[in-house]
Amino acid sequence: MDLINTPAPDFRLFDQDNVEHALSDYTGRYVVLYFYPKDDTPGCTQEACEFRDAREVIAKLGNATVIGISKDSVKAHKKFADKYDLTFTLLSDPDHRAIEAYGAWQEKSMYDKTLMGIQRSTFIIDPDGMVVKTYPTVTPKEHAAAIIADLQALQAA
User: Fold this and answer.
1) How far is CA 62 from CA 19, 35, 134, 136, in A?
2) Is 41 contained in some domain?
3) Residue 93: strand, helix, or coil
4) Which end of the chain is more exposed for a tag (fewer CB within 10 A), N or C?
């Protein structure tokens, strides 16, 4: 599913503090929307901590905000955010509606079994709500640095 140069699918989901968020709440600023498989697992923790450490730099680029989405519960997100001092929004999508809308719900193979799960992926959404950059597969290490470079390039264009 290629969402590039299309309106980003809107959603209404609850964060780690049980506050409801919609993508449309962020109109007028860049959004780095990333989907990840599970709270407090090695790759997801590395990616979240990189976003935490880069949050101030990202925020200076088009008033950008980072939002993470997984199907974990609000309670699990709260525990994850508190444990690693995550300073950005984590949204719970237990029915995986937003996850599916962005094409991040995919068939995966693990231990010779095929199952459905979240494909680690990221989308940059511009201030007008358009998807301007996609990362259909992500390696957690150095991902935040790539996001920063791409936000800088988008602002320079």
Assistant:
1) 24, 21, 17, 23
2) yes
3) coil
4) C
Q: Domain holding 141: CATH number?
A: 3.40.30.10
Asked if residue 134 belongs to a domain, the reply is: yes
Beta bridge partners of 66: 32
Active-site residue numbers? 44
How many CB atoms within 10 Å of residue 116? 10
pLDDT digits 0-9 by tens, 20-46? 999 999 999 999 999 999 999 999 999
**Packing angle, helices 42-60 and 143-156, rounded to 10:** 30
Query: Which residues span the domain enclosing 20?
Result: 12-156
Pairing of strands 65-70, 31-35: parallel
Core vs surface per residue 33-72: b (16+ CB within 10 A) or e: bbbbbebeeeebbbbbebbbebbeebbebbebbbbbbbbb
Task: Note whether residue 2 is domain-resident.
Answer: no
Give this prediction's pTM: 0.94
Q: What does the alpha-carbon distance between residue 42 and residue 137 come to, in Å, rounded to a whole number?
A: 17
